[in-house]
C-alpha cells in the first residue's frame, strides 16, 4: 500500500514529497499516533548596505571600548587609559510604562479633597442595599416607577434585614399618614417590599443612613454637620454617550438649622468651579424626597450642549423627622461625578471611562488641578 511505503521512508521533507507521497501524507496527517509533523524555521541574515560599509572599517580599536561604568572597574582602575563608547541620546528605546492609579480614581481622590477642604466628613457604605434605605427611608412611594425592574437591579432570592423597629415604624407612618401636616402616600406600607435587596441606585442611601445614625444623638447640636460620599451606583438604563448602567456619584448633605437654598447653590457652584466648570445653570425640578428640588447642568464645550450633572434640594420633613427624630433643614445633592470629570480628560463618551483600553490607560494624563 502507498501509506505503508510512505511510512517506511520517513522522515521526509514536505518540499521533497512526490505526488504519491503527498497523497499518503494527506491520508495520514490527522493520525497523530502514526505521523508526527515538525516545523523547522530557517532564518537568513544579510548585512544591510550600511553593514557592508561598517565591516570595511578597522574595528580592532573598538575592542577595548567600555560599554558601561561598574563598581568593579572603578575599584580596580581598569578604566584608565581606555575609551568609553559614545551614547546616542536620540536613539529609540523601549518605553517604560510605570504603574499608576486608574484615571477615574485619581479624579475621585481630588473630589474627596474638595469636600474635605470645605469641612465635610466622608460617608461610606456597601453597594447592595435594602429597598428600605434606597427608597423607603427617602420617602419614595412603594409604587413609584423608579422601583420597577426596568430601572433598578434587584438581587434575586435575597431578603435584607430592616433597621431598628423605631425607625421602621416612623418611616411606615410617614408613608401611610405623613408627618408635620403632610398626608403621606396613603395606602398600606409593605414591609416585604422594603426588605428586597438592590444594587444602590444613588449614594443618597448613605445620607439616609447617616441621618438615622445622627438621630441616636441626644442634642440638636450633636446632630448637625456636613457629610459627603463619592461612590459607584447602578441603574438599568440604556447605555449611550451620556448614560451608563454604572456611574459614580458624589453625595453631600449639610444639617444645620440656618441652612438655606442659597447655601446649597453656593456649595454646588464651588464644587463645579474646582472641577473646572465655570458655566453652571440651575432649574426647578421634582424629587420625592426633596422640596424645593432642583437640577443643574454644566456646559460641555465639545458637544456644544448643557449636560445634566446635579440633582439637589432640601430634604422633606417626611425624610428628616423619621430618621433624625426632629426637623432640621438638610441640604442634599448628588451630582453625577463621571460626567463632571469628562472635560479634564477630553472624553466625550461616558463609555470610554471603563473600556479597559490599555493604550488609553498608558497615555491618558494625570489628574492635576
Descriptive report:
The protein is of the alpha+beta class and 369 residues long. Helix content is 32%, strand content 19%. It has a 7-stranded mixed sheet with strand order 1-5-6-10-9-8-7, with helices on both faces. Strand 8 (290-300) and strand 9 (305-315) form a beta hairpin. Helix 7 runs antiparallel to helix 12 (317-324) and helix 9 (204-214) packs across helix 12 (317-324).
Stretches where pLDDT is under 50 for at least 5 consecutive residues are none
CATH architecture label of the largest domain: 2-Layer Sandwich
CATH first level of the largest domain: which class?
Answer: Alpha Beta
Q: Give the strand tally.
A: 10
Within the CATH hierarchy, at the fold level, what is the topology of the largest domain? Answer: BirA Bifunctional Protein, domain 2
Specify Rg, calculated over alpha carbons. Answer: 35 Å
Biggest sheet, strands in spatial order? 1-5-6-10-9-8-7
Residue fraction in strands:
15-25%
On the 0-100 scale, what is the average pLDDT? 89
SSE class:
alpha+beta
Determine the N-to-C terminus distance. Answer: 81 Å
What's the story with the biggest beta sheet? Answer: 7 strands, mixed
Amino acid at each position: 500500500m502507498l501509506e505503508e511505503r510512505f511510512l517506511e521512508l520517513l522522515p521526509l521533507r514536505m518540499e521533497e514529497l512526490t505526488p504519491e507521497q503527498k497523497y499518503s501524507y494527506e491520508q495520514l496527517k490527522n493520525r497523530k499516533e502514526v505521523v508526527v509533523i515538525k516545523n523547522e524555521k530557517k532564518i537568513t541574515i544579510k548585512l544591510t548596505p550600511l553593514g557592508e560599509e561598517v565591516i570595511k572599517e578597522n574595528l580592532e580599536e573598538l575592542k577595548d571600548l567600555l560599554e558601561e561604568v561598574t563598581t568593579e572597574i572603578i575599584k580596580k582602575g581598569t578604566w584608565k587609559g581606555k575609551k568609553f563608547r559614545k551614547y546616542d541620546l536620540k536613539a529609540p528605546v523601549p518605553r517604560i510604562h510605570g504603574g499608576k492609579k486608574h484615571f477615574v480614581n485619581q479624579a475621585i481622590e481630588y473630589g474627596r479633597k474638595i469636600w474635605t477642604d470645605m469641612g465635610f466628613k466622608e460617608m461610606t457604605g456597601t453597594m447592595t442595599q435594602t429597598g428600605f434605605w434606597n427608597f423607603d427611608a427617602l420617602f419614595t412611594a412603594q409604587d413609584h416607577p423608579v422601583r420597577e425592574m426596568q430601572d433598578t437591579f434587584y438581587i434575586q432570592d435575597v431578603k435584607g434585614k430592616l433597621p431598628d423597629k423605631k425607625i421602621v415604624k416612623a418611616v411606615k407612618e410617614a408613608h401611610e399618614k405623613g408627618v408635620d401636616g403632610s398626608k403621606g402616600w396613603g395606602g398600606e406600607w409593605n414591609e416585604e417590599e422594603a426588605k428586597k435587596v438592590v444594587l444602590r441606585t444613588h449614594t443618597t442611601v448613605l445620607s439616609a443612613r447617616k441621618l438615622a445614625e445622627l438621630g441616636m444623638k441626644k442634642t440638636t447640636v450633636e446632630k448637625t454637620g456636613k457629610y459627603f460620599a463619592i461612590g459607584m451606583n447602578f441603574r438599568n438604563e440604556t447605555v449611550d454617550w451620556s448614560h451608563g448602567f454604572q456611574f459614580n456619584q458624589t453625595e453631600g448633605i449639610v444639617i444645620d438649622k440656618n441652612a438655606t437654598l442659597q447655601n446649597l447653590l453656593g456649595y454646588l457652584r464651588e464644587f463645579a468651579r474646582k472641577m473646572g466648570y465655570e458655566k453652571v445653570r440651575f432649574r426647578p425640578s421634582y424629587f420625592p424626597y426633596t422640596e424645593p428640588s432642583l437640577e443643574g447642568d454644566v456646559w460641555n464645550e465639545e458637544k456644544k450642549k448643557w449636560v445634566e450633572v446635579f440633582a439637589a434640594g432640601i430634604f422633606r420633613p417626611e425624610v428628616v423627622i423619621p430618621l433624625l427624630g426632629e426637623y432640621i433643614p438638610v441640604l442634599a445633592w448628588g451630582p453625577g461625578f463621571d460626567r463632571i470629570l469628562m472635560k479634564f480628560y477630553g472624553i466625550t463618551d461616558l463609555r470610554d471611562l471603563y473600556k479597559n483600553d490599555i493604550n488609553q490607560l498608558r497615555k491618558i494624563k494625570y489628574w492635576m488641578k
